[in-house]
User: Fold LON peptidase substrate-binding domain-containing protein from Hymenobacter sediminicola.
Amino acid sequence: MRTLALFPLNLVVFPGEKLNLHIFEPRYRQLVHDCLSEGITFGIPPYRNEAVSSLGTEVQLIGVEKTYDSGELDIRTRAVGVFRIEEFYRQAPGKLYAGGLVEDLHDNNTQDALLQARITSYMEQLYDVLGLRRLMQELPPDYRIYDIAHHLGLNTEQEYQLLEAETEAERQELVVEHLEHILPVLLETERLKERVRLNGHFKNLTPPNF
Assistant:
């Protein structure tokens, strides 16, 4: 276990994700200063149900995009891994920002090829309906669930379930279940929209022979 600076936020961050943040509170301005001067990383545990979650994602400061006269900052970060909080401190020793004693969680990235094929097929249908096919084209062939997690229409609790999953195969199963639930609804909505568009138009119909 080790000590890690913590920055609780109302969102789930996934490993590999690039996250841009606007920093305005003095405690987190201090955190950014420490990242720059000491080379430390920090963790983002989701703030859910009025409490700091036990799991979080460690992020690395990539750079400061802009510094304002007020002292506020725009920063770029990259998420590198998942951890579990064993002890949470509202203030790290001698600091304004929070901290905690954390344990790093090791992930099994092995994919289930059949599940991956189903997810790809479902995603193509989903993006076609939403008019976002370009998102599918931008994905690498060996994409992970973390790469698409924010583009699935999941709520925060569902995204946190993905963070809790210890293997890629578990995440694949969760995503398949979600897509199989929402796709029929979206496809039916699309068909309904098409029927509404056709109503009131002149129709060239071939009458039946009887």
